[in-house]
Design brief:
The chain is mainly alpha-helical. The chain has seven helices and six strands, in the order H-H-E-E-E-H-H-H-H-E-E-E-H. Helix content is 61%, strand content 6%. The chain starts with a helix and ends in a 19-residue tail after the last helix.
């Protein structure tokens, strides 16, 4: 069994087993989650195919099963199912077990800060395709969801992603070579900032931010009626599309 496949299984196994918890009842919103994952996954697969083709990153055959679809390892396709599933499950668990009030002003402040950080990074590394693509898309995602769509769940997403960064750094660290003789996924540093968190390109943090953010945005869009984030303000606000 390939290293990459094992990582995919380890990422999703616990969320999958606990999807049937009575209080969280994650399985009850599968009909909204899977379309969100399908749309997001299709978008990122196209991105992946292009960046693999031009050599932004690649895969070490030693750690793979050898099965490929459109020149991408089968494990890479699974990545866009297992990782979003695990993090969206975490989002749901936090909303149910540790609900928090919606703070529009705090959300806007954090969103402003993130846009400035991502946009600045995109400008600084304008000549590195992975850097400018991920940082620009991350800034655009926050701009659209905060000011165009006027969503009220971003603070919940920010909390989830901050927590998810811990297992993300562990799993992505292994994928990028930590503890291995050769990385599962290699990166061409001439196409990124060459700044790494141990073995992880800093761009991967922005990449994951957009990947998970888009999954959660589509999930919130598909769920009918009120959003899946609890309203603790004492008034129920209908979700507008």
């Amino acid at each position: 069994m390939s290293t990459y496949l094992i990582i995919n299984i380890l990422v999703v196994i616990i969320p999958l087993l606990f999807s049937f918890d009575k209080k969280v009842a994650f399985f009850r919103i599968w009909k909204y989650i899977f379309p969100a994952m399908l749309i997001t996954g299709a978008t990122f697969i196209l991105w992946d195919i292009l960046f693999t083709h031009i050599g932004v990153w690649g895969f070490n055959e030693v750690h793979l099963t050898g099965l490929k679809i459109i020149n991408l390892p089968m494990e890479e396709w699974l990545f866009f199912i297992t990782v979003p599933y695990a993090v969206v499950f975490t989002y749901r668990v936090l909303n149910v077990w540790v609900p928090m009030k919606k703070h529009p002003e705090m959300q806007r402040t954090i969103s402003y800060a993130l846009i400035i950080i991502f946009a600045t990074a995109a400008v600084l590394y304008y000549d590195r395709i992975y850097s400018v693509a991920t940082f620009s898309l991350a800034a655009l995602f926050v701009l659209v969801t905060e000011w165009l769509l006027r969503t009220d769940y971003l603070l919940h997403f920010y909390r989830t992603y901050l927590i998810a960064l811990i297992p993300f750094l562990i799993t992505n660290g292994v994928l990028t070579g930590f503890g291995l003789e050769e990385p599962v996924v290699w990166y061409n540093d001439s196409m990124n900032s060459a700044i790494r968190i141990v073995t992880i390109p800093i761009e991967d943090v922005a990449y994951g931010f957009v990947l998970i953010g888009l999954n959660i945005t589509l999930l919130e869009w598909f769920i009918p009626g009120t959003a899946s984030t609890p309203d603790l303000s004492g008034t129920k606000k209908k979700k507008s599309h």
